[in-house]
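Hi R.,

As promised on Friday, here is the backbone we talked about, encoded as structure tokens. Could you run it through your design pipeline when you get a chance and send me back a sequence?
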């Protein structure tokens, strides 16, 4: 569908240059007939820009003066024995930044031939640089610029080094020596107060001077705008010719773009088909893997069924042997007629048969299998006196990250533990699942991944602990206050 749309656009695009060129020719003829272009003059509102400067200056000056926040705080700090000053109001730096921004905006709108009218104000507020003009201004101001001092307040404090090197030394505070340099005392406050007051007055004077030059600046800007408008009208015809030539090329570019989109769409469809085939191949491989895993599980179940059948056959044989031994062990009714030697022989045969029966008695089940059978019969009874535990957070995080290095540890958790540790009389400890806990898919995957239990069956659904068949429990041993896995268990998920 997209291919057809793109092909139609290519056909329409081939007519685009002719259509646009025709429209432009008519437009050009109409313009030649009128030849009365409208002129728009964009003038700069210097009055508004000056108002921004004046308002920013008033706010900054009010906070600097002795009845403002900065010098009031500095005066209080000068009466303390501490060498450093903390908790300076950072709004001083913000106000100064607004002032410099307003002046910079005004400067950007000035014509080049009027830049010198703002230079004295710029020299008062700007941070010193390497230019000769700035250095000469430094000499005229004797000491440092106000921007250098305001910058010290950016972090809200004055350190001893800053007080000594950036304030006291440039201001040449009286009585300054290597011992008291860096201590903000009364002499330092007086010098700094006088310097800031003088700078504020100088900046205010320059701003007043700038206000008197506003009419000349506005008139000159309007003249420049009118001249630019005339030059623009003179270039209109030349620009129209350039536009016509550009439109001719626009059709060719449009055709190339549409052709590129067509090729891209074809490539996208091919890629989607390829991805679809790859997904199908992967699904087939996953099905084969699932089928192989099911066959393995079926083989294991068949083997276990055979074992159970063998056990059943052995039990049947034992029962038959017991019956045979019982029959052989009975004395005949005419025992009194037999000779003593005959009776002794019958007793010997009975003893031999009983001894043979004892040798064929199967050994008892291993402890882990015996406990597994008890768990199947009565899980609540088995875990009644057991210790409730869960994996340690460190072990769980390592299992999730795949870095547990086959070390799995557990810690006591009486409220939310997913496992129980059952100890027998021999001191061995076995790990069982909590029959009341719901083991979701991620938990079962972590159990299988950490080899806590070898999971046979479906790992794609959740199970309650009592629904899981424990073939054999895991074996753990104490490790300080925790327990560590020493042998994996095995479970069947049905």
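Update: got your reply. Pasting your designed sequence below so it's all in one thread:
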């Amino acid at each position: 569908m997209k291919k057809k749309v793109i092909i139609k656009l290519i056909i329409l695009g081939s007519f685009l240059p002719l259509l646009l060129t025709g429209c432009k020719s008519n437009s050009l003829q109409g313009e030649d007939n009128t030849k009365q272009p409208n002129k728009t003059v964009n003038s700069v509102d210097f009055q508004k820009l000056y108002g921004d400067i004046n308002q920013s200056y008033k706010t900054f000056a009010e906070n600097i003066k002795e009845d403002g926040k900065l010098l009031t705080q500095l005066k209080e700090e000068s009466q303390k024995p501490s060498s450093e000053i903390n908790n300076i109001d950072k709004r001083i730096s913000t106000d100064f930044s607004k002032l410099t921004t307003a002046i910079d905006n005004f400067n950007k709108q000035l014509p080049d031939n009027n830049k010198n009218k703002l230079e004295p104000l710029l020299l008062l507020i700007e941070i010193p640089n390497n230019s000769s003009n700035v250095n000469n201004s430094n000499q005229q101001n004797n000491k440092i610029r106000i921007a250098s001092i305001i910058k010290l307040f950016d972090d809200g404090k004055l350190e001893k080094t800053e007080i000594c090197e950036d304030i006291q030394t440039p201001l040449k505070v009286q009585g300054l020596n290597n011992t008291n340099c860096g201590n903000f005392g009364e002499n330092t406050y007086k010098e700094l107060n006088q310097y800031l007051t003088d700078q504020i007055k100088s900046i205010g004077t320059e701003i007043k001077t700038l206000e008197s030059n506003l009419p000349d600046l506005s008139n000159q800007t309007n003249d420049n705008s009118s001249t630019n408008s005339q030059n623009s009208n003179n270039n209109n015809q030349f620009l129209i010719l350039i536009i016509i030539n550009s439109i001719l090329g626009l059709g060719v570019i449009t055709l190339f773009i549409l052709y590129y989109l067509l090729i891209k769409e074809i490539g996208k469809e091919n890629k989607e088909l390829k991805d679809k085939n790859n997904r199908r191949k992967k699904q087939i491989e996953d099905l084969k893997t699932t089928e192989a895993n099911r066959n393995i599980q079926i083989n294991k179940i068949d083997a276990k069924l055979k074992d159970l059948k063998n056990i059943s056959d052995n039990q049947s044989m034992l029962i038959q042997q017991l019956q045979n031994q019982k029959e052989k062990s009975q004395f005949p009714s005419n025992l009194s007629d037999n000779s003593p030697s005959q009776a002794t022989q019958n007793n010997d045969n009975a003893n031999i048969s009983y001894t043979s029966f004892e040798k064929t008695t199967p050994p008892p089940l291993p402890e882990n299998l015996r406990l597994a059978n008890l768990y199947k019969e009565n899980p609540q009874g088995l875990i009644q006196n057991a210790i409730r535990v869960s994996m340690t957070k460190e072990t769980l995080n390592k299992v999730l990250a795949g870095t547990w290095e086959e070390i799995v540890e557990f810690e006591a958790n009486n409220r939310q533990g997913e496992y129980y540790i059952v100890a027998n009389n021999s001191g061995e400890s076995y790990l069982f699942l909590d029959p009341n806990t719901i083991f979701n898919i991620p938990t079962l995957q972590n159990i299988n991944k950490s080899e806590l239990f070898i999971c046979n069956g479906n790992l794609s659904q959740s199970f309650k602990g009592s629904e899981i068949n424990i073939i054999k429990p895991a074996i753990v041993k104490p490790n300080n206050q925790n327990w560590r896995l020493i042998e994996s268990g095995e479970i069947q998920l049905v």
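One thing I noticed while checking it: The longest strand covers residues 474-479.

Thanks again,
M.
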